[in-house]
Amino acid sequence: MLAMRKKTAPTTEQAAAPNKERIVSSAKSLFAAKGFAATGLREIAANAGVSLGNIYNHFQSKEEIFQSVFDSKQIEESLADTFVLIADDFPLNIDKVILSIKRTVDANYELYRIVYIDLIEFGAVNTNRLLENLLSFGQSIFREMLYDKARRGILKELDYDFFARQFLIAQISFFSSLRVLPAIRMDRYTDEEISKMMANVILNGIRREPNAS
Asked: By the 8 A CB rule, do 118 and 125 touch?
């Protein structure tokens, strides 16, 4: 007869993990909906189904919870398809890149709203680090695509390092704010139409005219 296997009791850390995950998930939803300042620790605890004291078992402050909610790795991974498009024929395919960013933000709305919250309530401390990581990863792609086309006379001679920084954060922050700012709602347009219109505005500013010297 086979010996009965004795069940191993979970460690304190394993037992606490589900509570910590619920706290982070609760905070993400509330921060995304209300902002950081308007969300209280008691509200996070109630929404997570834990006690206020349980929050302090995992986090020393609301700011520390925000650091856990701001998931740079998840954001970077969500933009993988966008960087594939950038490496293809950027910026001539910029409408496809913008469409990819919009759909990524829409599919991960709470995650990107946290980026927006960081921009307006934390002075972009976390977003700046994220952007530096993204540009460090994609700098060679941007430089190759943009400066090569400038050398070939397709684009104007501009500071494309600045353009790359501005482009990424402008698209992410714009699409993150669409649902909460009625003045810029674009419900009458499809995602494809929005992307093409935005792409035309950008390309008209950087593309060299055929007869320009």
From this structure: yes
Indicate the angle between helix axes 12-34 and 109-121, nearest 10 degrees.
70
Global pTM?
A: 0.80
Structure tokens at 59: 């986090």
* Matching residue, tokens 């004291």: 53
- Rounded Cα distance between 127 and 116, Å, is 9
- On whether both 28 and 112 belong to a single domain, the answer is no
Query: Over the chain, what is the mean pLDDT?
Result: 86
Residues 36 and 131 in one domain: no
Residues 6+ away with beta carbon under 8 Å from 23: 44, 45, 48, 50, 54, 55, 58, 59, 65
The answer, yes or no, to whether residue 136 has pLDDT greater than 70, is: yes
The gap from C-alpha 53 to its chain's centroid, in whole angstroms, comes to 31
**64 and 76 fall within a common domain:** no
Helices (H), 3-124: 12-34, 41-48, 52-58, 62-69, 72-78, 80-89, 94-107, 109-121
For residues 32 and 100, membership in a common domain is answered with no
Under a CB-based contact definition with an 8 Å cutoff, are residues 155 and 149 in contact?
A: yes
Which domain does 27 fall in, by range?
14-69
When divided into structural domains, the chain yields a total of 2
